[in-house]
Design brief:
The structure holds two protein chains of two kinds.
Chain A: H1 24-38, E1 44-48, E2 63-66, H2 72-82, E3 87-93, H3 94-100, H4 102-110, E4 116-121, H5 151-154, H6 160-164, E5 170-177, H7 181-199, E6 204-210, H8 214-217, H9 221-235, E7 239-243
Helix pairs in contact in A: 1-7, 3-4
Chain B: E1 2-6, H1 7-17, E2 22-25, H2 32-41, E3 48-51, H3 55-67, E4 72-76, H4 78-93, E5 98-104, H5 120-124, E6 135-137, H6 142-159, E7 162-168, H7 169-173, E8 175-179, E9 206-207, H8 214-235, E10 238-241, E11 248-251, H9 254-269, E12 274-279, E13 281-283, H10 287-294, E14 299-304, H11 310-317, E15 324-328, H12 337-345
Parallel strand pairs in B: 2-3, 2-4, 4-5, 5-7, 6-7, 11-12, 11-14, 14-15
Antiparallel strand pairs in B: 1-8, 6-13, 10-12
Classes of the chains: A alpha/beta, B alpha/beta.
Chain lengths: 255, 348
């Protein structure tokens, strides 16, 4: 009997600890699938960040390093500079990448480090129990914005792909989501391209994945996907923000 | 052949000759010559010099390079070391070797840029959060800076823990003749634990400091402390100068030990029995040498460029069996041999 679907080799058999309806599982699969398809598991080193995905070092079958909060791209820089033949990726959430790790993100990007960055944006701090993230939307209720995010006092969300697309060191920046089969396929291609770019020596490539957090959003998995479509995508438009191959410099094309 | 080198530059050349090809830094006085030297040398030998966006980023780049299994280092001065403390704790918790150089300046806060030894507590007791130690080496000459760089890299690899060279602005900025070792004189250990790609030949390696199960974390920390006991038994180093018949022994390390040595010579010229015990490792602290000395001397005087930090360790090492007095200057002031002699004579 032909096998039409199976777990990627680059994922271990460890049971995932993620909540029902959380999209980490899908994104883990897409990352592992890209590693499988490119045949690079044996020379790949992943960098886990601090947040819900901190224990992804148990889930990816390649060598893994767990970085201090926000420092994943500095750690990745050290790994890549030490062994340029290795394939290095980071897997980071919004608090890690766009709050405490903003400096490390912007400077790894502007140096054009030849690494792949997978950025999970679910507009909330998941692991610590649902506090405001740098990407929480205006008016969004979280544990630390109980009256809704007030932009007068808590400021505005950070649009990471837009911000990074202005830097000359960035080769590729695309925002995707995984709310439906069509978008999962777009995400799959974007993630593979972000790895392929590294193999081709093109430089810094980031894929931002708009993701859900049903537990801390206080919604069911299905309601979460609706909330993502109705609230997150309008604020964070999907598409390619930078691609040195096609010359795209910001916003627009979704595929 | 001896060459005349500035301390900061000698540290850099010594690191290269110890096989280090990965330097991650951030400018800060009075260590900047070290980074500048590396920026000149590394590109010529296929190495990495990277000026990071912050000391925090630099130390985490060291973490990454070390995790990949290569010799990596960073250098800074006091305020910058505070920023690196996060990364040092993570490296200790992940059993990663690394070399961190602290060319100390006056503190606290932005302090000053003149030589100081006020980071002794930070280096030996609390380089970051959590239960851990790092190896701390305290050179007192430019030659010893060169020698201890190799020793520090080797010991860090041997024990899988970060090592620090605790220097100061005086040692970093002064020039002395040095003999440099040839590269490759000392063998490096294998690092089967490194995260450098499993090559489909082994299980995946994980470099990690997170353990959410308390009994597992306790076990790991207790294991690490057993290793620290071995380090204490094997790595303690101190130099004794005219201690055999000394009535009073000065305990001083680094730049202040140079001043203390002059004071000892002056005392000896006057026929006064004064010696110097100079810790070369600050962690592990040379308690064995001090205990031995405590059986002979009737008093100790620690001389430090701080308000008195090592003095507590000397008292503990000898169980307060004889008086241990302190003399120091701080804020970038350097004690004079005359001042030290006056204090020592008060104890004779």
């Amino acid at each position: 009997m032909a096998t039409v679907f199976q777990k990627p080799k680059a994922l271990t058999s460890a049971p995932l600890h993620y909540c029902p309806g959380c999209t980490h599982g899908i994104v883990h699969r897409l990352v592992a699938q890209a590693i499988d398809e490119l045949g690079v598991e044996g020379r790949t080193v992943g960098v886990a960040s601090v947040g819900c995905s901190v224990m992804c070092y148990d889930y990816f079958a390649c060598d893994m390093v767990q970085a201090p909060h926000g420092r994943a791209q500095a750690v990745a820089t050290g790994l890549k500079r030490a062994r340029p033949e290795n394939v290095i990726f980071t897997y980071q959430g919004d608090g890690d990448l766009a709050a405490i790790g903003t400096a490390e993100t912007v400077h790894a990007a502007t140096r054009g480090e030849n690494i792949t960055v997978i950025f999970i944006n679910n507009a909330i701090y998941g692991m610590t129990g649902g506090q405001m993230a740098p990407t929480s939307l205006p008016g969004q209720i979280t544990q630390t914005t109980p009256y809704g995010r007030d932009t007068d006092t808590a400021g505005y969300p950070v649009r990471v792909c837009e911000l990074l697309s202005t830097l000359d060191g960035v080769a590729f920046a695309q925002r995707v989501t995984v709310d439906c089969v069509k978008n999962v396929n777009i995400a799959r291609k974007a993630i593979k391209k972000a790895f392929q770019n590294q193999l081709d020596g093109k430089g810094y490539s980031i894929v931002e994945v708009l993701s859900t957090c049903p537990t801390n959003w206080g919604l069911t998995p299905v309601e979460s996907l609706d909330w993502l479509r109705e609230n997150m995508i309008p604020y964070y438009p999907l598409g390619v923000y930078k691609d040195i191959d096609s010359g795209v410099k910001k916003g627009g094309a979704a595929e | 052949m001896k060459v005349l080198m500035k301390g900061n530059e000698a540290l850099g050349e010594a690191a290269i000759r110890a096989g280090c090809r990965h330097f991650f830094g951030y400018p800060i006085t009075p260590q900047t010559e070290l980074a500048a030297y590396m920026s000149k040398r590394m590109p010529k030998i296929g190495g990495t010099y990277l000026q990071a966006e912050s000391e925090i980023a630099a130390v985490n780049m060291v973490l990454g390079a070390s995790a990949a299994g290569v010799r990596a280092m960073t250098s800074s001065s006091s305020p910058g070391i505070s920023l690196k403390s996060e990364g040092i704790s993570y490296m200790a918790g992940s059993d990663l070797p690394a070399l961190i150089i602290n060319v100390q300046r006056g503190g606290p806060g932005l302090g000053g840029i003149q030589p100081s030894q006020a980071d002794y507590w930070q280096a030996t007791k609390a380089t970051g959060h959590g239960d851990f130690q790092i190896l701390v080496f305290a050179p007192s000459t430019v030659q010893e800076m060169v020698d201890l760089v190799s020793e520090a890299f080797d010991a860090a690899d041997r024990w899988r823990m970060p090592a620090m060279i605790l220097a100061d602005g005086m040692l970093g900025q002064m020039m002395e003749p040095v003999e440099l070792p040839e590269e490759g004189e000392r063998a490096q250990v294998e690092k089967p634990w490194a995260a450098c790609g499993h090559g489909d030949k082994r299980e995946h390696n994980i470099i990690n400091s997170l353990y959410l199960t308390p009994d597992k974390l306790e076990d790991l920390v207790v294991e690490r402390y057993k290793r620290y006991e071995q380090v204490k038994a094997r790595e303690q180093r101190a130099e004794e100068y005219l201690c055999d018949d000394a009535d009073v022994i000065i305990v001083a390390y680094g730049a202040s030990s140079r001043v203390a040595r002059s004071a000892v010579n002056k005392a000896r010229e006057k026929g006064e029995k004064v010696g110097l015990l100079r810790p070369i490792t600050l962690w592990p602290f040379p308690v064995d040498a001090l205990r031995k000395a405590a059986g002979r001397a009737k008093a100790f005087l620690t001389v430090e460029m701080s308000m008195g930090q090592m003095v507590d360790d000397v008292r503990l090492a000898i169980d307060c069996r004889v008086p241990v007095e302190f003399f120091g200057r701080t804020g970038g002031m350097i004690p004079t041999p005359g001042e030290v002699l006056e204090r020592v004579e008060g104890l004779l």
